[in-house]
Recover the amino acids of this structure.
């Protein structure tokens, strides 16, 4: 029996050969080391993301998330839902809150699920949590430190928390303007956290990086520049969209502004995996387009 | 004119605030705004809004229906929730912006050319089809949404990025031909259709 057990919602970007497939690989390795059992919600669907609002409206969006909650309650009964993606977490938690607040919305949602022939009984009693919450609140920093065999010495990390892991729900006990948990995680595994990273909670543009690329790239430029200003070797983030946007648009920004950005953008789960003795492959480092050399070096030791 | 729009004009006449309260997600909060402007100053895309949120709230109260529903402003919302956590009155501003955009879109008043409006539709169609995001077809549809030649230009711009994604196994070109998604997408599609019908009925959309 594993020490910790969750109903896991990986989300679309974590699928095989999708944009955050390497996040998924590292989350899997990290959880194995920490004795965390992840039971994937069978046949989960997309959360609707943020951008779903325009065409999806309210009820259809909530129905998407309610389906996942109901499937989790049916197949992984009694287990908290844990999402590794910020948008998945936010969307699911928001739906859960709204359904709790409105009897009509809950009744409508149940009707829709039932009429579609989905054989579930939506109770909406399951806590919806982010992977980071499970790590900090259930496992705890002390236990996160215990498996460290290769501390991330001499690497300086700019902890880029971004938006949706931080707002509107955030992590209990942390501030919205300067949350500290990511820096603490970095230090827990022996890395050095940049203390004055002023773009820590700045928006990367989110989905608008696709529809309004120029406006978003202005944001991303600041996020990367600030990491360089603080002497960071790499950025670390808990969000798949932040990771994607901040990594892949650096070359576009270089072309446009004549900058020479080449700042690796990693996931917290990659840091933990490497520090716990995992290989580069187990940490999904082969999935980084801008190679995180310093982490690779430690992983190859 | 779109039937939904005609129906709402008939129903609400000159009370746009009430129309927003009844039909826009979290719209009942609009009257709580005290015009401090923290939301506008906190927005990452702030300079790109023709009318920042606090201005939109005042315009709603002043009955500026066409100007509010026809602006590109709320389409600039990146869903970063900075305004929400900073608002001294804890108004769910992000949701109201989403709600206004959705409402304008349903009434056929949202700017046709706005790229985020069009991308949002492509995205929703994408997830409705398979129950999950098919990132490959999403990207291609987005690049080509302004037609063939603009699409080729954008695809060329993104070619190296795509190659990087492919090499690191974060992009699957074969998903263009076959993508699996959830087990029974038809069931999900009927759920979404039903949900849209119920929502339309509750809000009184004829179309």
């Amino acid at each position: 029996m594993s020490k910790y057990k969750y109903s896991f919602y990986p989300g679309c970007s974590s699928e095989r050969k999708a944009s955050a497939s390497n996040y998924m690989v590292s989350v899997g390795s990290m959880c194995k080391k920490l004795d965390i059992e992840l039971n994937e919600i069978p046949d989960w669907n997309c959360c609707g993301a943020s951008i779903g609002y325009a065409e999806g409206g309210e009820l259809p969006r909530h129905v998407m998330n309610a389906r996942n909650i109901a499937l989790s309650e049916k197949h992984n009964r009694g287990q908290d839902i844990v999402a590794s993606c910020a948008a998945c977490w936010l969307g699911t938690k928001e739906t859960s809150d709204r359904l709790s607040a409105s009897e009509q919305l809950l009744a409508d949602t149940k009707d829709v699920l039932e009429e579609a022939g989905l054989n579930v009984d939506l109770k909406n009693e399951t806590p919806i949590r982010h992977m980071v919450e499970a790590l900090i609140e259930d496992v705890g920093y002390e236990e996160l430190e215990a498996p460290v065999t290769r501390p991330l010495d001499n690497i300086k990390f700019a902890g880029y928390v971004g938006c949706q892991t931080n707002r509107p729900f955030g992590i209990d006990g942390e501030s919205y303007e300067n949350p500290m948990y990511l820096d603490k995680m970095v230090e827990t595994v022996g890395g050095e956290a940049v203390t004055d990273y002023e773009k820590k909670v700045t928006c990367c543009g989110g989905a608008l990086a696709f529809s309004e690329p120029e406006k978003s790239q202005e944001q991303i430029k600041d996020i990367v520049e600030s990491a360089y200003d603080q002497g960071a070797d790499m950025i670390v983030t808990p969000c798949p969209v932040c990771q994607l946007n901040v990594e892949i648009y650096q070359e576009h920004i270089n072309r446009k502004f004549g900058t020479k950005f080449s700042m690796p953008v990693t996931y917290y789960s990659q840091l933990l995996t490497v520090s716990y003795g995992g290989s580069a492959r187990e940490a999904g480092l082969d999935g980084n387009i801008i190679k995180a050399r310093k982490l690779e070096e430690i992983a190859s030791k | 004119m779109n039937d939904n729009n005609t129906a709402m004009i008939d129903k609400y006449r000159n009370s746009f605030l009430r129309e927003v309260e009844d039909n826009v997600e979290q719209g009942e909060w609009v009257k709580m705004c005290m015009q401090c402007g923290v939301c506008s100053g906190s927005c990452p895309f702030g300079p790109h809004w023709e009318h920042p949120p606090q201005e939109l709230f005042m315009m709603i109260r002043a009955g500026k229906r066409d100007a509010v529903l026809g602006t590109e402003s709320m389409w600039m919302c990146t869903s970063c929730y900075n305004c929400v956590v900073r608002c001294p009155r804890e108004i769910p501003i992000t949701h109201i912006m989403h709600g206004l955009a959705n409402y304008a879109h349903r009434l056929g008043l949202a700017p046709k050319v706005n790229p985020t409006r069009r991308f949002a539709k492509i995205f929703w169609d994408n997830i409705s089809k398979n129950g999950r995001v098919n990132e490959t077809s999403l990207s291609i549809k987005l690049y080509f949404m302004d037609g063939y030649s603009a699409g080729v230009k954008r695809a060329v711009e993104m070619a190296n990025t795509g190659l990087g994604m492919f090499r690191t196994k974060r992009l699957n070109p074969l998903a263009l031909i076959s993508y699996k998604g959830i087990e029974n997408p038809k069931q999900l599609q009927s759920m979404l259709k039903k949900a849209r019908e119920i929502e339309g009925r509750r809000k009184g959309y004829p179309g």
The longest strand of chain A covers residues 4-9.
